[in-house]
Specification:
The structure holds 2 protein chains of 2 kinds. Chain A has helices spanning 46-53, 79-85, 107-119, 123-136, 142-145, 155-167, 185-202, 213-219, 237-242, 247-254, 294-298, 320-333; strands at 4-15, 18-30, 35-39, 61-69, 72-73, 90-93, 173-177, 205-210, 222-227, 230-236, 304-305, 313-314. Chain A is of the alpha/beta class. Chain A has 2 domains: 4-220, P-loop containing nucleotide triphosphate hydrolases (Rossmann fold); 238-333, no CATH class. In chain A, α4 packs across α6 (155-167). Chain A is globular and about 65 Å long. In chain A, 45% of the residues are buried. By secondary structure, chain B is mainly alpha-helical. Chain B has a single domain (28-63, 73-303), classed as Orthogonal Bundle (MetI-like fold), CATH 1.10.3720. In chain B, α3 (39-61) packs across α4 (95-131). Classes of the chains: A alpha/beta, B mainly alpha. At the A-B interface, α2, α3 and α6 of A face α9 and α10 of B.
């Protein structure tokens, strides 16, 4: 049995415009020490799908489907039971380290609280353990710094504190919601290599949400590509990167700037992400896809196994071969 | 070479300064520094401290008791004779001692009633704001209802049924003065609830009650402290009103409200009976207001 298994996860929001389907039918399974990347543009439902797993949806949100951790469904669990798992067995790192720490509590207070609550440690043992972890995430002079307030740390340092805090109870699953988005590039690299080391040392399974494909390539075993709240393509990282078979994935990869190109112009996918309240009837990407025809606009493609590579799931009416041919034709015409 | 050395030592000394700055400076320490730069607030704080100290120690230093009559000196204006510095009332009781004893009672009522009403207001407002939904609606309607209840009527009823007592005054004032705090705290909690660090705390599995009291309340303290300094004078004033109407403190025990009440009846023949207690009361109230102002500026420097 997989450590964490998500089946047909959906998120709906009750809004003034009616029910909005933010996420539809996500499936994945993750084992110890593995990393899953969830990739997509802003508003594609990446964050909402993991917030749903953690029971952190906004008041008007509702999660459907199942998110099984060790065979138990996180979505239907009672709050008290969920609180024993959150932060303890399944922990989360947030996007913006500047706002994710309580400004009026010392780092020590915020870290020891977690250990006191989940592990029943006394304050001194909890402090010692917290210092150990701050050391592990390479915060210099951790024993002294732990007594300071969040505003006395830089952004990168705060994200380290967040990671240390998430790892306090040695969780089996770590959910990282764009952990490097708010940081500058050099710090990003440090944080990512830190995550990789920690995964090696602790054997943590990581769910990494990002829109940075470079991060995915460096860290992930499996990739889920989301668009308009639906899975477009899903498979092993190497399959997705080297044999992308969905027009959206191809577009995303094409939009990554490359240093070895003389031409400085940036490639973009034409158009804008869809309005989630008024999704097209058919494929959500059909509006921006140059392979789309009337059939694509009318009928939702079903996510299913692809013939071009075993283990890859894709949701597209065009065959992988057609997408590849089209991509080559575009490259040669450009 | 020389230049290099100089630069190195500069860098090192800069590093040292940064090190000292880095050592655990809480948001509170910053606020404290800003508060002590505010002259009016610091003067008020000192003045208030003096008043409190004099009220506590003064009665022991004076030769008179607050409830014993000096038969040689009735309705005496302020004089050095027999050490009646503030004069005496019509029964020959020393006004200075009575003002100080009355100050103890007034400040005590002010402190107790403020503490309990602030505690009640924080708990009520933070709970309503954090849980939200129907619970919030219900709890805030209770607050609205409390506003609608005429407190003097209830005070008169309580005194009629239970008699005049110190604790009744405190309870009555508490019951009718926590609602403002509850509203302010609820508003702040609503905006704090959606902050990322609260979400992060929930993601760490911290239960709701702990989030409210460990994570929300410390963030409220700035507002609470400022609002408390506004509540204290209100409470002291309410006590004066109740005592003025004969619903509060019982003779021979006294409070500033009682003394002012007694003073008004004789203000044409012995004005000092009104002036001294009134001066004590108004100076104290001014002090609290200036301290409140200073705290607000110190805790929320952007708001100026």
């Amino acid at each position: 049995m997989a450590l964490i298994e998500v089946r047909d996860l959906g998120v709906q929001f009750q809004t003034g415009d009616g029910l909005v389907y933010a996420v539809n039918g996500i499936n994945f399974a993750l084992d110890r020490g593995q990393t899953l990347g969830i990739v997509g543009e802003s508003g594609s439902g990446k964050s909402q799908s993991v917030l749903a797993m953690m029971g952190l949806l906004a008041r008007n949100g509702h999660a459907s489907g199942h998110a099984l951790y060790a065979g138990e469904d996180l979505l239907t669990m009672k709050p008290a039971q969920l609180n024993r798992i959150r932060g303890n067995r399944v922990a989360m790192i947030f996007q913006d380290p500047m706002t994710s720490l309580n400004p009026y509590l010392t780092v020590e207070r915020q870290m020891t609280e977690v250990l006191q609550f989940h592990k029943g440690m006394d304050r001194r043992a909890a402090r010692a353990r917290s210092v150990e972890l701050l050391d592990a995430v390479k915060i210099p002079d951790a024993a002294r710094r732990i007594g300071t307030y969040p505003h006395e740390f830089s952004g990168g340092m705060r994200q380290r504190v967040m990671i240390a805090m998430a790892l306090l109870c040695e969780p089996e699953v770590l959910i990282a919601d764009e952990p490097t988005t708010a940081l500058d590039v050099t710090v990003q690299a440090q944080i990512l290599s830190l995550l990789r080391d920690l995964q090696r040392d602790f054997g943590t399974a990581i769910v990494l949400i990002t829109h940075d494909l470079g991060v995915v390539a460096g860290l992930c075993d499996q990739v889920v590509v989301l668009y308009g709240g639906r899975v477009m393509e899903q498979g092993s990282a190497s399959d997705i990167f080297y044999h992308a078979s969905h027009p959206y994935t191809v577009g995303l990869l094409g939009a990554v700037p490359r240093l070895n190109q003389d031409d400085a112009s940036l490639v973009a996918i034409p158009g804008a992400p869809p309005n989630m309240a008024r999704l097209p009837k058919g494929c959500p990407f059909s509006e921006r896809c140059n392979l789309a025809d009337a059939h694509c606009v009318d009928t939702m493609p079903v996510l299913g196994p692809s013939s071009h590579r075993a283990g890859v799931l894709r949701a597209c009416h065009r065959s992988a071969q057609q997408v590849a041919d089209n991509h080559l034709a575009e490259l040669s015409s450009a | 070479m020389l230049l290099n050395n100089r630069r190195d030592s500069l860098v090192r000394s800069l590093g040292d300064t940064l090190d000292t700055v880095v050592a655990g400076r809480s948001p509170w320490a910053d606020a404290r520094a800003r508060f002590f730069r505010n002259k009016a607030a610091v003067v008020s704080l000192c003045l208030l401290a003096i008043i409190v100290l004099v009220c506590l120690v003064g009665p022991y230093m004076l030769p008179h008791a607050f409830d014993s009559a000096d038969w040689d000196a009735m309705s005496l204006p302020p004089t050095l004779k027999n050490a009646h510095f503030f004069g005496t009332d019509e029964s020959g009781r020393d006004l200075l001692v009575r003002s100080l004893i009355g100050g103890r009672v007034s400040l005590m009522v002010g402190m107790l009633a403020t503490l309990s009403s602030v505690a009640l207001g924080i708990a009520w407002g933070a709970t309503a704001g954090f849980i939200g939904g129907r619970v919030d609606t219900f709890m805030m309607r209770v607050v609205d209802m409390m506003y609608a209840v005429p407190y003097l009527l209830i005070a008169i009823l309580m005194v009629t049924i239970l008699g005049r007592a110190f604790y009744l005054v405190v309870i009555t004032i508490t019951v009718f003065s926590w609602m403002d705090m509850a509203r302010v705290v609820r508003g702040q909690t609503l905006s704090l609830r959606s902050k990322e660090f609260i979400e992060a705390a929930r993601a760490m599995g911290v239960p709701t009650r702990r989030i409210i009291f460990q994570h929300i309340v410390p963030n409220l303290l700035g507002v609470v402290v400022v609002y408390t300094t506004v509540t204290v004078p209100g409470v002291i004033l309410t006590e004066s009103v109740l005592s003025f109407l004969g619903l509060g403190i019982q003779e021979p025990m006294t409070s500033w409200g009682v003394l002012i009440h007694d003073g008004t009846t004789v203000m044409e023949i012995s004005p000092w009976m009104l002036l001294f207690p009134a001066a004590f009361l108004s100076i104290t109230l001014y002090c609290f207001n200036y301290i409140g102002d200073g705290l607000r500026d110190a805790l929320d420097p952007k708001d100026r």
